[in-house]
Write a structure and sequence with these properties.
Length: 381
């Protein structure tokens, strides 16, 4: 009996000190019905559950999380162009709207700087990027700084040091490079103001290595990932490598520049490269790129010293015309949206980045942007 009593005490103690499993929430915008859908990810099985949907406005598209995970920002691309600010309940993930603010233009990309005090945005149609102060109430102010770019600015983010900002300038085949003033939001070109890529690459989305020393850029029209070393003092970019994520088996030809009037190239039956998103795994060793025409995702490994990408494999996904992807905080699962899919998928990540579908949940119409919010484990009292 004494042994059993001791065992029981040990089991109770183990339960008391064991952490309750953390919950991961994901938010996905769908411009065709104006919704932001909230999902809960089961971190053990990879299953997805639709929790609730919030009406955000017609053509809600890019979103950004504040660095502290307390606020979500969503850009509405229907006139008048606005950004909606939501507070996030730390326990339930529920969104509560705090207010709206004007945007400089129709924005294709949103991000915050590393301090969470500036909202950064890129306008594909208006050929500009902007910075906009965020108040202590997590609401962007009504004034903004704008900076003209070449044709089709498609992304903007600050590096982990928050000293520099970089933007994908698709139509100009430039990766724009700036010094970022975190006090004023001003952007000052570094050197010539850009690093170049081969013609018709189409620099689109960007990602930073875990140590902040390397910038990765996906080419929408080339289906390549290009890596640039970041000079720690000047912020200037220098190319260290590139890799194609388009195997011959996909049967794709080079892509073309697209615009809002003919985004799907309806009059062109040619199967063309149409890459979209780029995401880095939490441990910094794996990079994924989406390709919309073939409804697939390509995986790249990254050299630990140089950051140079190496193509590992291309994997089909069930979500048609996949736009955005996102890792869960553990790096075990990948979430995938499809612009022409009625569901959002979750995939287990295997050797060489291979994907195995593990779950799905209903999506809004034309699901695009994903932001994943990890919450800290809750320890029982």
């Amino acid at each position: 009996m004494a042994v059993r009593a001791g065992l029981a005490v040990s089991l109770i103690a183990a339960v008391l000190v064991a952490p309750v499993q953390a919950t991961t929430f994901a938010y996905i915008s769908s411009p065709e019905d104006g919704l932001i859908s909230q999902y809960q990810l089961d971190e053990t099985s990879g299953q997805l559950k639709l929790v609730e949907q919030t009406k955000a406005g017609a053509q809600v598209n890019p979103m950004a999380l504040s660095p502290d995970g307390k606020a979500l920002y969503a850009a509405v691309r229907a006139k008048p162009y606005t950004v909606r600010s939501y507070s996030i309940d730390p326990k339930t993930g529920h969104l509560s709207e705090r207010g709206t603010a004007p945007l400089a233009e129709s924005m294709a990309y949103l991000a915050t700087d590393r301090s969470g005090r500036w909202l950064l945005a890129a306008s594909y149609g208006a050929d500009l990027i902007s910075t906009q102060a965020i108040g202590t109430d997590d609401l962007p102010t009504e004034s903004f700084n704008t900076f003209k770019t070449g044709p089709h600015a498609h992304s903007i983010r600050t590096d982990p040091s928050n000293q520099f900002a970089y933007a994908g300038n698709l139509g100009a085949d430039h990766v724009l490079q700036y010094r970022f003033n975190a006090a004023t939001g001003q952007l000052t070109p570094i050197g010539s103001g850009h690093a170049s890529v081969p013609a018709k690459t189409g620099p689109r989305h960007i990602a930073f290595s875990s140590n902040g020393h390397v910038l990765y850029v996906v080419g929408e029209m080339s289906g390549t990932v290009t890596a640039y070393a970041i000079n720690g003092k000047s912020g200037a970019l220098s190319k260290v490598g590139a890799a194609s994520g388009i195997p011959a088996s996909l049967g794709l030809t080079h892509g073309e520049v697209r615009d809002a009037s003919n985004n799907n190239l309806a009059n062109d039956p040619t199967r063309r490269i149409w890459a979209a998103d780029l995401r880095l795994s939490p441990d910094g060793t794996l990079l994924y790129m989406t390709e919309r025409t073939s409804s697939s995702v390509s995986a790249f490994s990254l050299d630990a010293e140089t950051g140079k990408p190496t193509f590992m494999g291309n994997y089909p996904v069930q979500e048609q015309q996949p736009r955005n992807i996102a890792f869960d905080p553990s790096g075990r699962w990948l979430l995938v949206t499809g612009e022409k899919s009625a569901v959002v998928g979750s995939y287990a990540i295997g050797p060489k980045g291979a994907l195995t579908r593990t779950g799905q949940a209903p999506s809004g119409k034309g699901a695009l942007w994903i932001e994943v919010l990890p919450t800290n484990p809750v320890w029982p009292m």
